[in-house]
Design goal:
By secondary structure, the chain is mostly helical. The chain is 86% helix and 0% strand. Helix 5 runs parallel beside helix 7. 57% of the residues are buried.
């Protein structure tokens, strides 16, 4: 799809709607996991919550390389260099695979110490380990799916991943209870279902990419890492990887502080964040659409369309917030009740949602600004802001609110409002400065 011509709003809708539908089912996929873990026990729900930052850590590989590859591929397509775009994809696949193997070895060694650091003990620790080991063994599969899909998104194809995520959701509805209860695999069954579904998704996406010409003209030697491409891909991928990696570490930080106030607080955070993810699903679709639009138009030198795409996405995000936030805040308690019957867990989880309503648009502003920077091939600030937002600021703000001001778990909830808004405003202003600088150079 040529995104350098035609209506920006039309392109945005054509890209964002399929992506949003797909991410909705992906989020519901995770909700299904949380639901069945809650049916096992509160300990199992807490154990699964302990693995959420680990899951984000693993995803950081695929997301980082896919963001980097997607930006480079889209720019090459916009400049009319299709053969070069395929080479970037093949090199990104190889680098992601090699990195995933290294991560697998490291995490198998560090898995238990990580959970112990998060104050896991007894049955909660055992539950976390049963899920985590299987998840770590599937890192390569989890990493390659978004990387290969990046080649499709850069061409304007968000439908394939939508179909994969919808199919994965329905498969998970069957496989989770089958593995957990029929095969008596418990928490391991939840993770095994995920890896199996992702393996099937990988096969389907790779075949679709082949049919679309994403591997056209490539030889085996094109998958062997080359210095030129490796440097370019890493320059794009490292900031995105570190940003998402720090998001995972940030979730570890959140879990660490929340775990100081007991198992119920951890379970509440794990349940509430699933509800929050549902509310933020449409913004993920906008991020995907904006990255593709900015990438192709930046490659074609059409900076007016780059900024037009950015403004359209921010307006779309505001409309999404107005439509989705009210029902989430009104019915959030009932949704959390579907995961657990423990009243303190429900109460703390609902308090989280009410407070996070204040920071909803900060996520939109931040992620859209990141997509603009990535598409313009200027992603360095994404990495530094990730370190600020996920580690440096929370360590200070959470400590003050939770302990100095004795706000307990609510200190984390309110701390997220302060940290996210400060990060979003700074990144937005930086993205505008970068855009103005690039436009001035082209003038």
């Amino acid at each position: 799809m040529d995104l350098t011509k035609g209506s920006i709003r039309s392109h945005m809708l054509k890209l964002a709607i399929p992506a949003t539908v797909g991410y909705f089912f992906n989020t519901m996929y995770n909700v299904v996991d949380t639901f069945w873990a809650g049916k096992l026990s509160t300990d199992s729900l807490a154990g699964l919550s302990m693995n959420f930052p680990l899951y984000l850590l693993i995803l950081s590989l695929g997301v980082g390389f896919s963001s980097g590859a997607g930006a480079l591929i889209a720019n090459e397509i916009g400049a009319g260099r299709d053969k070069s775009s395929n080479k970037y994809l093949s090199q990104s696949i190889s680098l992601a695979f090699i990195t995933s193997l290294i991560f697998t070895i490291l995490l198998l060694v560090l898995l238990k110490p990580i959970f112990v650091l998060l104050n896991a003990e007894g049955e909660v620790l055992a539950s976390a380990m049963r899920y985590g080991i299987v998840l770590v063994l599937g890192i390569a599969v989890l990493s390659l799916v978004p990387v290969i899909n990046a080649g499709l998104i850069a061409k304007g194809n968000t439908r394939t991943y939508r179909n994969v995520l919808i199919a994965g959701f329905f498969l998970n509805l069957v496989l989770d209870p089958l593995f957990i209860f029929t095969f008596k695999l418990g928490e391991s069954g939840v993770a095994l279902a995920t890896i199996l579904i992702q393996a099937m998704s990988l096969a389907y996406i790779a075949n679709t990419a082949r049919k679309s010409g994403s591997f056209s003209g490539l030889k085996f030697s094109d998958f062997i890492p080359e210095k030129k491409y490796t440097i370019e891909i890493l320059n794009q991928a490292i900031p995105a990887t570190v940003s998402f990696f720090t998001m995972a570490l940030g979730t570890f930080v959140i879990t660490y502080f929340v775990s100081s106030f007991g198992r119920d607080a951890v379970a509440a955070y794990g349940a509430a964040i699933r509800v929050e993810q549902i509310a933020l699903v449409p913004t993920a679709g906008l991020n995907v659409a904006l990255a593709a639009l900015v990438g192709q138009n930046n490659g074609a030198g059409k900076m007016d369309r780059v900024m037009g795409s950015f403004k359209t996405s921010l307006l779309g995000g505001a409309l999404v917030m107005l439509a989705i936030l009210p029902p989430v805040l009104i019915f959030g308690r009932q949704v959390i009740s579907a995961f657990t019957e423990t009243e303190p867990v429900i109460r703390m989880g609902y308090n989280y949602l009410l407070i996070q309503g204040l920071t909803f648009y900060s996520y939109i502003l931040l992620y859209q600004s990141n997509a603009l920077l990535q598409g313009m091939k200027k992603p360095a600030m994404i990495m530094w802001m990730g370190l600020y937002r996920q580690i440096a600021a929370p360590a200070v703000v959470f400590s003050l609110l939770c302990f100095t001001f004795a706000m307990k778990e609510k200190g984390v909830w309110w701390g997220l409002v302060i940290v996210n808004w400060s990060a979003a405003v700074f990144t937005f202003l930086h993205a505008k400065r970068v855009f103005n600088s690039l436009r001035h150079k082209q003038a």
